[in-house]
Every structure is written in structure tokens, then in C-alpha cells.
Design a protein that fits this description.
single chain, alpha+beta, Heat Shock Protein 90
């Protein structure tokens, strides 16, 4: 996930979007984690397990889209987790940090994308949806 975070951060900085770097890195990390976790489970070829593609693009002047593509057909969803759960919050984090997200299914797998608004006033006028806290260490 480190390379995914670094790639997203470098791209956004090159585009002059420093304010989005922290949120976008976390979104990329969560999408990459899901891609690796689910692609590893369903791909019989060991050489293909955990492989995914990351894409960062600007579909418009006011949007940044972060996407991952993998060979799994498992569609991610936001789930309700307990306070003590050690996983399962990834898509809730993506939903909270992005203005919208979605999935594109393909015969070979899927793409999962999240979009962030680059308009500076949007963040102040539309507060984020809170997501459950993440436990960082085991007891």
C-alpha cells in the first residue's frame, strides 16, 4: 500500500492539490487493501494473486478519481462493524472521505473508484459523514 499512497500523493502535489493529499492517500490505501485481500482469495494463479492496478485521474477540473482494478468479482460494500472489530471499515472510510464512490464490473474482475471534490469551499460547506473509530493496536 505504500507505493499506492506515495503515487497518489505525488500526483496530487504535481496537480497543486496539496489539500487533498491526506484523504486521497487514505482512500488509495483502503482501495488497494481491498483489491489485494479479495484478489488473493479468488485467483488460482499464484503469480496473479494480490495484483491490482491503481489509477488517479481528473475527470473534470473539480474532481479527482482514484481507482483500483483487480481480477476479483467480489463487490465491496459499506458494512456495519462492532467497535472491537479489527477490519471491515475500509469502504466506510472511503465513503466518508469521498464525495461518491462506486464499482464497475467487468468479465475479468472489477474496478472500484472514489471521487474527491477539488473545490476548496466544498469541504467546509458539506461536513463529512463520520465513520467508526479504528482500533490501532491489539490489547
Amino acid at each position: 500500500m505504500g507505493i499506492a499512497r506515495l503515487s497518489v500523493a505525488a500526483t496530487l502535489r504535481a496537480w497543486g492539490l496539496e489539500d487533498l493529499v491526506d484523504d486521497a492517500r487514505l482512500i488509495a490505501s483502503e482501495l488497494a487493501t481491498n483489491a489485494i485481500r479479495h484478489a488473493t482469495r479468488c485467483i488460482p494463479d499464484p503469480e496473479q494473486r494480490g495484483c491490482f492496478r491503481l489509477k488517479v485521474e481528473r475527470p473534470s477540473d473539480h474532481l479527482v478519481r482514484i481507482s483500483t482494478f483487480d481480477r476479483s468479482r467480489t463487490v465491496p460494500r459499506v458494512i456495519q462493524t462492532s467497535e472491537t472489530a479489527e477490519s471491515g471499515r475500509g469502504m466506510a472510510v472511503v465513503a466518508a472521505l469521498s464525495c461518491r464512490w462506486g464499482v464497475v464490473t467487468r468479465p475479468w474482475g472489477k474496478g472500484v473508484w472514489a471521487e474527491c471534490d477539488t473545490t476548496p469551499t466544498t469541504a467546509a460547506s458539506h461536513p463529512r459523514t463520520p465513520y467508526p473509530p479504528t482500533r490501532l493496536e491489539k490489547p
